[in-house]
# Entry
Amino acid sequence: MRRWGDWILQTFPAIAFGLYGRWFHPLGLLLGWVGGMVAGTAMAASTGFKSAVYSVHLGGVTVAAYAALDAFVLNIVVAAAATLVLDTLPVARARDETAARDHDDEEAPAATAAD
# Structure
């Protein structure tokens, strides 16, 4: 039985870079996620879903690695490349509507007995 961790790992770049960074284009993160999901699933399917290790052949070198990690690297590379391309095209990013006051350290009103 194949573990779900491979697919869960592919969500990390979109969530982490999307929430905590502004460099990546949102559509680039989506394309990276799709690339990682497709590649990871294809690698797992090629082993009959029996092994988490996949051998990547680059030139004359064969490297055996955790398939989810290979797909994760591909995910980030695709997201970065797509961001560079999308930033040269007239594809608008969503506007960040976060205001400085959203980060104030105000205390929440204290609960009263009537609450």
